[in-house]
Amino acid sequence: MTAASIKFAFRNLRQGLSGFRIFLACIALGVTAIVGVDSLARALTDGLASEGRTLLGADLVVSRMHRPADASERALINSKGRTTEIISLRGMARTTKAAALVDLKVVDQTYPLLAPPVFDPALSLASIMDEKDGIFGVAADAALFARLGVKTGDRIALGDATVELRAVLVNEPDRIGAGLTLGPRVIMSRAAFAKTGLLKPESLIRFSYRLLLDDPRDDRLAEIDVALTPALSEAGFELRGRKNVSPQLTRNIERFSQYLGLIGLTALIIGGLGVANAVIAYLDRRRKTMAIFKAIGASGSMIFQIAFLEIMVLAALGTGIGLVLGASLPYLVSLLASNLLPFPIAPHLYPDRLALGALYGILTAATFALPILGRAHDLPVAILFRDDLANDQAKVKRRYQVMTAIVGLALVGIVILAAREKLITVFVLLGMAAAFFLLRGVAFLIMRWARQVPRPHRTELRLAMGNIYRRGTITPALTLALGLGVTLLVAISATQNNLVQLVSSGLPDKAPSFFFVDIPARDLPAFDEFMKLKQPETRVSHVPMVRGRITEVKSVRAEAVIAEENARWVLDGDRGITFSSTVPEGSRIVSGEWWSETYDGPPLVSLEADIAKGLNLAIGDMITVNILGRSIQAKIANLRRVDWQSLGINFVLVFSPNTFKGAPVSYLATLTDESGSQNLEREAQLLVDTAQAFPAVSAIRVREALESVRTMIDQLAVAIRGVAGITILASILVLSGAVGASQRRRIRDAVILKTLGASRFRLLTAFLAEFAMISLAASFFGLIAGLLAAWAIVAFAFRTAFTWPIGDPLATAALAVVFAIGLGLIGTWRVLDEKPARHLRAP
Amino acid sequence: MTNEVKAVEVKALHIELGRDASRVHVLNGIDLSITQGEAVGLVGPSGSGKSTLLMAMAGLEQAGSGHIIIAGQNIEAMSEDELARFRGRHIGIVFQSFHLIETMTALENVAVPLELAGHSDPYTRAKHELEAVGLKDRLSHHPSELSGGEQQRVAIARALAPDPTLLLADEPTGNLDEANGATIVDLLFNLRQERNMTLILVTHDLRLAARCDRTIHLNSGKIIAKDR
Question: N or C: which end of chain B has fewer CB within 10 A?
Answer without folding.
Answer: N
